[in-house]
């Protein structure tokens, strides 16, 4: 049996044909080309689905279901995207638009939620039913799986973990609040902190690593400087990890999940990131039985998590 998973993003529309064992056997990738009307975006999504089927490496007689992850707030029951600032959607019946084009019902869910679901079904969270996934990218995304089900809250706005406050009246966040987890622990926040430290220390090795240009700074710059013995780079990394650890401990203390997964490019730092975070969680989380404590790990599926999770949304309708 095969299902289609769609990962709708502000830059790209990715679609995949997914087998029961979570293998992706056909793919497509089309530019989203924002801004443009929802009807035009729906046309491109339908085209991406058709291209993915055509690309499939296996003979497909029938597609069981189609699911999609989208930025913003989505009502899985109606297929309506209630709000998505990036896409310009507000009460947009995207599921209905796609049904008109593809002839089948479409399951629609928030993109971070479907990525978390994908990790539980086919990634690092396999075998666990209570998992929280935190993605460190432009912002801080969150997905919560409780008893094998996606948690969204009664109004589909749940799991906005990036917009919990870790420092009262702290840094301004794009959401309007101050001191949000996202403002300290996203890849964007790390890059901003790195540039600030470089401006204040013209002798830092980070300048050489970035070819003497702030435009070349990325999430690796401070970590590379730390490994080279640079004190300023080390200070940036330590501050970043301490803020990230604070937010992760809050998540553990709130949900006590079996597994806490973190994803995003920063996770490529491996033990330089994970080991100190494990120490912070071990030291600061509220756990009376160390034998039953949350396991911290990195997400496994990367950019495929959204496709795998979306393809399996049909399971949640039963």
Description of the molecule:
It is a single chain. By secondary structure, the chain is of the alpha/beta class. It has helices at 38-55, 94-102, 111-122, 181-185, 187-200, 206-209, 221-227, 231-255, 271-284, 305-311, and strands at residues 2-8, 12-19, 24-31, 63-70, 73-75, 80-84, 89-92, 106-110, 131-136, 140-146, 149-150, 259-263, 295-298. The strands form 3 sheets. The chain has a 5-stranded mixed β-sheet with strand order 3-2-1-4-8. Helix 9 (271-284) links the parallel strand 12 (259-263) and strand 13 (295-298). Helix 5 runs antiparallel to helix 8 (231-255) and helix 8 packs across helix 9. The chain starts with a strand and ends in a 7-residue tail after the last helix. The model has no long low-confidence stretch (mean pLDDT 93).
């Amino acid at each position: 049996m095969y299902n289609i998973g769609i990962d709708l993003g502000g830059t790209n529309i990715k679609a995949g044909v997914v087998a029961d064992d979570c293998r992706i056997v056909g793919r497509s990738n089309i530019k989203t080309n924002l801004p443009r009307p929802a009807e035009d975006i729906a046309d491109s999504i339908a085209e991406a689905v058709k291209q993915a089927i055509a690309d499939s490496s296996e003979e497909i007689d029938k597609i069981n279901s189609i699911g999609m992850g989208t930025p913003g707030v989505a009502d899985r029951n109606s297929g309506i995207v209630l709000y998505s600032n990036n896409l310009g959607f507000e009460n947009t019946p995207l599921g209905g638009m796609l049904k008109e084009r593809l002839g089948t019902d479409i399951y629609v869910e928030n993109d971070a939620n479907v990525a978390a679901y994908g990790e539980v079904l086919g990634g690092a969270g396999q075998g666990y039913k209570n998992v929280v996934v935190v993605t460190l990218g432009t912002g801080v995304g969150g997905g919560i799986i409780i008893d094998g089900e996606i948690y969204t809250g009664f109004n589909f706005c749940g799991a906005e973990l990036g917009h919990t406050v870790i420092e009262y009246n702290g840094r301004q966040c794009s959401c309007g609040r101050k001191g949000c987890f996202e403002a300290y622990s996203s890849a964007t926040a790390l890059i901003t902190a790195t540039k600030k430290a470089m401006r204040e220390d013209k002798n830092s090795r980070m300048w050489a690593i970035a070819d003497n240009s702030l435009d070349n700074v990325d999430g690796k710059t401070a970590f590379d400087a730390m490994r080279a013995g640079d004190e300023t780079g080390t200070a940036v990394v330590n501050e970043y990890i301490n803020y990230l650890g604070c937010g992760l401990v809050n998540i553990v203390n709130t949900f006590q999940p079996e597994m806490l997964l973190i994803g995003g490019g920063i996770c490529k730092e491996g033990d330089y990131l994970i080991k100190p975070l494990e120490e912070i969680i071990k030291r600061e989380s509220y756990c009376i039985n160390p034998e039953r404590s949350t396991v911290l790990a990195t997400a496994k599926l990367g950019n495929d998590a959204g496709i795998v999770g979306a393809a399996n949304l049909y399971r949640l309708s039963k």
